[in-house]
Specification:
By secondary structure, this protein is of the alpha+beta class. Helices cover about 40% and strands about 25% of the residues.
Length: about 400
């Protein structure tokens, strides 16, 4: 696809492009902790968006969406949200650069990739980070990577209308091959942890469902967490988010909590602890314990945070019966989307076949599966893959 996108660019715009790749991401553990100022453990994966880009010496931005076979053209002197939904992820990045005082001159772009849409792998973050990286490189802006991440996040807020946390853009830009990256969503400090994946692969099982509870329940969960913080803040003035809360604090004041609020808080506090414990397991090369933390995370999401659904629970339960699976859990906002599974390399085919058959029998839905490897974050595309591209 990299070659096709580059060739399409040369055919359309009659010049050689710079070629950039930007990955989607998975989150191994640490779900619904980001907006509670907690910890997450994402990794960039080899489902990627590719960008072929070059200046065109005008004041116009011309874009071609390879997968959709659609084109659009925009005046850089008058950047504003568009009726073309895919263009807004790109225009949002241009707007952020312009607002920060950078002179984005005319350029041509062909972009496309193999990040499955709707599977919760953050194709939007890959698009935003890839364009930010490419423009920074082509126009020599010398913007630090973390600033690009924040610009990409704001592009999503302001042009796509999604008030996302920073994890997706961060993972897409800061991913590291064979490593997960633990991000502290309060301080934005981060650290890499080696994943011993020689004998394992990440397999994503896409339920193909999205229950319409997702967005309303997401907002409800945020409010429930805030209610728990407000209660504990009366006793512990230093508590400003669930990040500050310990298991002991919760137990001390259990009787004062609405039972539902208590369950939500307990999940978040436990999940933050699980991320820490999972990272300690990785430091020891203990993948078995790491997998157990994933199962425990799912159980918490199912019973305490209550954002799972029958399809996700079924897939995790099926995976837990197989000794070739180290760990599995739902990933993302919930009520549909994917489970993430750590599967033994030599059992990939069997695992996929068994899961597809069981899911079809139970729900009459064809399960989609994706095998993912952990890769580096946004970068110039490898020149050996693209020998005729100027990078």
């Amino acid at each position: 696809m990299l070659q096709e996108i580059t060739e399409k660019f040369e055919e359309r715009y009659q010049q050689k492009p710079v070629v950039v790749r930007s990955p989607g991401r998975v989150n191994l553990i640490g779900e619904h902790t980001d907006y509670n100022e907690g910890f997450v453990l994402p990794a960039a994966i080899n489902k990627e968006i590719y960008f072929a880009l070059a200046p065109n010496h005008t004041n116009t931005f011309r874009a071609y969406a390879f997968n959709l076979e659609q084109e659009a053209e925009f005046d850089l002197g008058n950047v504003h949200p568009s009726d073309i939904s895919w263009a807004n992820y790109l225009l949002g990045v241009v707007a952020q650069l312009q607002q920060a005082g950078y002179d984005v001159r005319g350029f041509d772009l062909v972009f496309g990739g193999n990040v499955p849409l709707g599977a919760g792998l953050s194709s939007s973050a890959a698009v935003e980070c890839g364009l930010a990286f490419a423009l920074n490189h082509v126009f020599d802006f010398n913007i630090p990577k973390f600033t690009l991440v924040k610009m990409a996040q704001l592009a999503e807020h302001e042009y796509a209308g999604v008030r996302c946390g920073i994890m997706d853009q961060f993972a897409s830009m800061f991913g590291k091959k064979d490593h997960a990256v633990k991000l502290d969503c309060r301080s934005l400090d981060y650290a890499y942890y080696k994943l011993d994946m020689a004998d394992y692969r990440i397999v994503l099982c896409d339920t193909q469902v999205k229950h319409n509870l997702a967005s309303s329940e997401y907002n409800t969960r945020r409010l429930e967490c805030e209610a728990g913080v407000a209660l504990l803040h009366q006793h512990y003035p230093a508590v400003t988010s669930l990040r500050d809360v310990t298991t002991e604090m919760l137990e001390q004041h259990t009787a004062e909590f609405d039972p539902v609020i208590y369950k939500r808080c307990k999940y978040v506090v436990n999940e933050n602890n699980r991320v820490e414990e999972a990272c300690q397991a990785l430091e020891k090369g203990d993948m078995k314990t790491f997998g157990e933390k994933m199962y425990a995370s799912h159980s918490g999401l199912q019973h305490y945070y209550e954002v799972s659904c029958p399809e996700l629970d079924f897939l995790v339960e099926q995976a837990s019966r197989l000794d070739t699976v180290l760990g599995a859990r739902m990933m993302g906002g919930g009520f549909g989307g994917c489970t993430i599974n750590l599967v033994k390399l030599d059992a990939l085919e069997t695992f996929t076949r068994q899961m597809e058959a069981a899911y079809q029998r139970q729900f009459g839905i064809t399960l989609k599966t994706y095998v993912a490897e952990i890769v580096d974050g946004s970068s110039l595309a490898e020149t050996e893959i693209m020998p005729h591209a100027q990078v």
